[in-house]
Amino acid sequence: MSADTQRRIKRLIDIVVSLTVLVLLSPVLAVAAILIRLRLGKPVVFSQQRTGRAGRPFTVYKLRTMTDERDADGVLLPDGQRCKGIGLLLRRASIDELPQLVNVLKGELSLVGPRPLLPRYDPWYTDRERLRFEVPPGITGLAQIHGRNGLAWNERLELDVVYVTNWSLWLELQIIARTIRTVLTGAGVAKDPSAQMLDLDRERMLT
């Protein structure tokens, strides 16, 4: 099977799986949205700019999982203190990721690929790490099934390169299968990723 045929199948899988999951889990999304509105307030959906294929920016969507709690000086509290209750539950069950399926349908994301990161990280990738921009970013990827936020930046970004340079439909299906297992077990979910590691730009400024 040619690479072009495999990639067309990949896109078909993206569309079929995304539509199916959104339809089947629409009651879950509705309940989650109501609980977020009641417990965390507005907005229910969190949006943020990320860098996609070929370095093009796009807006990624997730369900809100954090409060707007601030300290006495009006500064937002650390993520780990603001992600609690319903927000923590949604994050542990990966329900907060479901709106990204809309990004998949729009062609901005794929089910599998390098996780899209913040635009401010763009100047800090090595030439090898920039291979991540040759393919659509994904909701899950090799890094997510090998430790998620428990991996150091160098390891996470290298796994992205390994995915790009060794891509096949078989690898794609393996990652999807292992992701399902990871989600069901809740393995590797971090309440506050920033407490485990520095942001990429801050880390590389110090090295």
TrEMBL record:
Going by the UniProt record, its keywords in alphabetical order are:
Membrane, Transmembrane, Transmembrane helix
Transmembrane stretches in the record are: 12-36
Q: Which Pfam families match?
A: Bac_transf
Name all Bacterial sugar transferase domain ranges: 10-184
The record, for InterPro entries, names:
Bact_transf (IPR003362)
Instruction: Give the family from UniProt.
Output: Belongs to the bacterial sugar transferase family.
Name this polypeptide is given = Lipopolysaccharide/colanic/teichoic acid biosynthesis glycosyltransferase
The organism named in the record is Micromonospora luteifusca
